[in-house]
Design goal:
With about 425 residues, this protein is mainly α. Helices cover about 75% and strands about 0% of the residues. It has 18 helices and two strands. It has a two-stranded antiparallel ribbon with strand order 1-2.
Length: about 425
């Protein structure tokens, strides 16, 4: 009896949370470039399992005449890498199979559908999912902070786990969208529920962005996303109070940064000033800004050659990747231009369909105040905006896939369930 109880506790308190954490860690490709390669192997396993289970269910649903919106969105997304590999074969003579394998990260698109199946079949409920999802995000942020703060990136300077840039020096290649999600969730818990304990993760997430990520466009997109939420969801009185607190907090933070590291403030003034040259058309001597302009010119030329289905995606293992053909060029660096270069107009529109569909569901979901749903909705807003300047979808599809899956579940299961309960109540009342 005691053994059974211990096994039950082990399963509920340790094994289940660990499996969930591992699922999110792999789906978001947090440690995909870790030198051992073990995380990439497990990622492929997750892709295979979620794909097989999802595709099997989709086929059975279609045979039963029960196709739905999610199926219609996943179908073109699933086909797209095959077209992209063909385009790379035609344009760059890259072997078709290499082009397909180079896009293996794309097939995590089934992660969201896999979760919807689990929720629909009652394998787990939305409350337990919420707990494991949010907890995993905080742990993942802790892992990123652990490496960034405590382990010198130079330890891994001969691997793909770190990169060098003139602005940041040696730094780890982590998916910043995860930190953005922690910031959004913490901000919403603070603004909507006044949960002051979320000030700490909000502070850690913000400092991580400022000190380690240093991505100008992403900082701007997070600010715009929070501003949209603030305008739409906070009443006038609380707007005034939060603005006062925001100004006070920002001033205190700037003072602390100025005392601890005054060079960081000068650094941001410089990099934002250099970035503004893209808008004004002036010249710049900053390396990263100049390279973005050069990469944009390469992308525009490629778009003109193959406007509809793009030029395809090249593996870094094939003749040095894009840089082997164009010098310094990474499609993800130039946002929507990079997407148009790789996937063309049609392929890029396919990526944007989930965002447009999510927007169309705003009215039906307006009354639901669940912070998980709110985070997923505004997380999609952030990724949509971020894709304008940084095509994160080329490398990281796990997070938007899960966001969309949860939004879909709320739209077609939670909303319908609530409507059915309301109708039942009305009938009983009569």
């Amino acid at each position: 009896m005691e053994t059974a109880r211990l096994l039950s506790l082990f399963y509920k308190k340790l094994l289940t949370p660990f499996i969930w954490f591992l699922f999110f860690l792999l789906s978001f490709r947090v440690l995909a470039r870790f030198p051992s390669g073990i995380f990439e192997a497990f990622f492929i396993l997750v892709v295979i399992l979620t794909s097989i289970i999802s595709i099997r269910d989709i086929i059975l649903q279609w045979l039963a005449g029960k196709a739905n919106y999610f199926h219609m969105i996943l179908a073109p997304l699933f086909i797209l890498p095959f077209i992209t590999a063909y385009q790379a074969n035609v344009e760059f003579h890259q072997p078709y199979l290499i082009g397909l394998l180079a896009q293996r990260q794309h097939f995590i698109i089934f992660a969201g559908y896999f979760l919807v199946l689990g929720l629909k079949n009652k394998s787990f409920d939305i409350d337990s999912f919420r707990k494991h999802f949010i907890r995993s995000l905080f742990i993942i942020m802790g892992i990123m902070l652990f490496f960034s703060v405590l382990i010198n990136p130079l330890v891994f300077n001969n691997t793909d786990f770190v990169e060098f840039s003139l602005n940041k020096g040696w730094h780890y290649e982590f998916p910043s969208d995860v930190i953005a999600t922690v910031i959004l969730y913490s901000m919403f818990k603070l603004l909507k529920e006044n949960k002051k304990r979320f000030i700490l993760p909000l502070l850690f997430g913000g400092l991580y962005f400022l000190v380690y990520i240093q991505d100008r466009s992403q900082l701007l997109m997070i600010a715009i996303t929070v501003f949209i939420f603030f305008i739409r969801n906070i009443d006038i009185y609380r707007k005034f109070i939060y603005i006062l607190w925001g100004i006070t907090g920002a001033s205190a933070l700037l003072l602390i940064i100025y005392i601890v590291d005054p060079g960081l403030i000068d650094h941001y003034i410089t990099i934002f000033g250099n970035a503004s040259t893209i808008v004004t058309g002036n010249t710049t001597t900053e390396y990263s800004t100049a390279m973005r302009i050069s990469e944009a010119a390469i992308a525009i030329k490629g778009i003109a050659i193959h406007p509809l289905f793009g030029n395809g995606f090249i593996s870094s293992q094939f003749k040095g990747g894009f840089s082997g053909f164009f010098g310094y060029f990474f499609a993800s660096d130039v946002g929507i231009l990079g997407n148009l270069f790789v996937y063309g107009i049609i392929g890029t529109l396919i990526f944007y369909i989930p965002f447009f569909v999510t927007l169309s569901w705003t009215k039906q979901l307006r009354k639901n105040t669940d912070i998980l749903l709110t985070t997923c909705q505004y997380g999609m807003v952030f990724i949509f905006l971020d894709m304008i300047t940084a095509a994160s979808n080329i490398k990281y599809m796990g997070l938007p896939s899960i966001f969309f899956g949860i939004i879909y579940y709320y739209r077609y299961f939670v909303v319908n369930e609530n409507n059915e309960k309301a109708q039942t109540y009305q009938i009983k009342s009569k």
